[in-house]
Amino acid sequence: MLYPYPSRTRTVVDLSGIWNANFDFENKGMKKKWHLRVPKGREVAVPSSYNDLFTEREIHNHMGAVWYSRDFIVPAQWKGKAVHLRFGSATYRAKVWVNGRLLGGHEGGYTPFEFDISEVARYGAKNRVVVYLDYILDANTIPQGNLPPNLGGYAAWHSNTLPSVPFDFYPYGGISRPVKIYCTEADHVADLTVRTDISGKKGIVNYEVVTRGRKGVSVDVSVGGAKGSAKVARNKATGRVVINNCKFWSHVKPNLYDLTVRLKDTNGDLLDEYALPIGVRTVKIKGNKLLLNGKPVYFKGFGRHEDIDIIGKGLNLPFLVRDFNLMKWIHANSFRTSHYPYSDEQIQMADRLGFLVCTESQAVTVSLRAATKKTLENHVQAVREMYDRDKNHPSVIMWSVGDENEKGEPGSLAYFKAIVKELRKLDDTRPISKALTLHPRDDKISQLFDLIIFNIYACWYGLTGRLEQLETRLEDQCGGYWRKFKKPILIGEFGAASYPGLTWLPGVVWSEEYQAELVERTIKWFRKQPYIIGEQIWVFADFKCSQENKRVILNRKGVFARNRQPKMVAHVLKRLWDPRKDPY
Ligand code: GCB
């Protein structure tokens, strides 16, 4: 799905601001037809999660129905054009009405969706949008929630948590990404897919444009001084342009070009113009390495969360800028969008600033013991939407179809085979993997993947405090993976928690010293293994979890505290990741 950039033919209006929210604890809004007459409720900020904005416990813990609404003006000049209403995301299920008319719905909390509101809009006048959100997770949803404790494993661990979710982050709800209206001509560019290749100094840009309407008969495409054109047939135009002396994209030099598509009618008049920032690069797995533009890459970076005090999972631009500045400061070059696709704005920043991103779908710790046909369908849909949104980003260099699952789960091979098959059909240009934390002997699915993403907590969950056994444990598990699958291994998570400001000599678990020592020794060991292609520490910053007795409100494995100030380990990483010692 294209991001709504403004252009000569497109205007965008952001509906961020204060909205009206009705928490529908008894789920009576539907019966009372709140979509027609929504009562005055509470003031709520969009984009933001709702949970930490209020003082009431029931809102803090709420995973159920809530109605969002606001009035907005559609400019009079937009009459006769196509008007679109786009949500960056809404958790978890959404139904949307404008001026009392149902537009449709969406399931899945982390990808965008949009509606054409040209027919229902009032031009030069007030319009009302009403959004019904329902955040009830079960065995069929992705991610799952409210699983029966007798399933064992994660489900049992988390059945005691409030809210009850089988994953380790707070299930923040609400409209946490921007809502926008934008207008285009009725005939416009509806989708664009770009695939790049490299031949010597040439950048090869293959494009496919999907159009809406009948008037558009041709497209002109220009990028980096190169020009091309193609005829539209059945609302599709495909072609190729070649950029001579191309400046390729990499995390070291994130060169971007604007690829501009102009849709024209039979007279050659412009119907629509859309410009997409693109980067020319290739990604390949070869032997035990991942090659970017033919050169091996070593990943240094993080698993992260979209998680901020008060704002929850809401997009907040000052925090976005701060987080990327911290990642630059510490010399990170990459991150994984653990455990769901992050906002458009995050990935755009990664394109511009040069970060290698593994986009992960929101299938976090799916229990296959509880999964149904519907779970698989929802998972496939989540993967499709993840691809569809991030397919054109040069920074996105691999996909993760989910985070962790348990050993010995029935049907796991068939289940993940179906997911990987679907994703490969859509995209054969990026490696596919899944974050795993099994002992290699229990891993029955990694033959499906191009590389292994391995999460290991040596001397934290197992061998707690026993640092003298660190290297043996690492060798058993990481070495075991390499021997079994002979595929490159990206360490997707490792680390230890520390309570910011708690220091202790000698380092003991929970102290900043222990976290720093464990991380330094672990990294030194990784660097000696030729099959390890990178280290992404868990986690960038402390983040909030459901209420339970093993977390003091937050998961404290952050390299930075939740307020984005460094712990001791941050200085260790900055030293170890110094690019002067290790340029690529
Ligand atoms: C993991 C999970 C992550 C948790 C982390 C931890 O393996 O992927 O979601 O937060 O461990 O800290 O336990």
By DSSP (H or I, 4+ residues per run), the number of helices equals 9
Q: Please summarize the sheet with the most strands.
A: 8 strands, parallel, barrel
- Helix fraction by DSSP (H/I, runs of at least 4): 10-25%
- Shape call: globular
Please give a structural write-up.
- The chain is α/β, with parallel strands linked by helices and 584 residues long.
- Helix content is 18%, strand content 31%.
- The protein has 9 helices and 30 strands.
- An 8-stranded parallel β-barrel has the order 21-22-23-24-25-26-27-28, surrounded by 5 helices. A 6-stranded antiparallel β-sheet has the order 3-2-4-9-6-7, with no helix packed on it. The protein has a 4-stranded antiparallel β-sheet with strand order 1-10-5-8, with no helix packed on it.
- Strand 6 (93-98) and strand 7 (101-107) form a beta hairpin.
- Helix 5 packs parallel to helix 6 (412-426) and helix 8 (512-526) packs parallel to helix 9.
- It is globular.
- The model has no long low-confidence stretch (mean pLDDT 96).
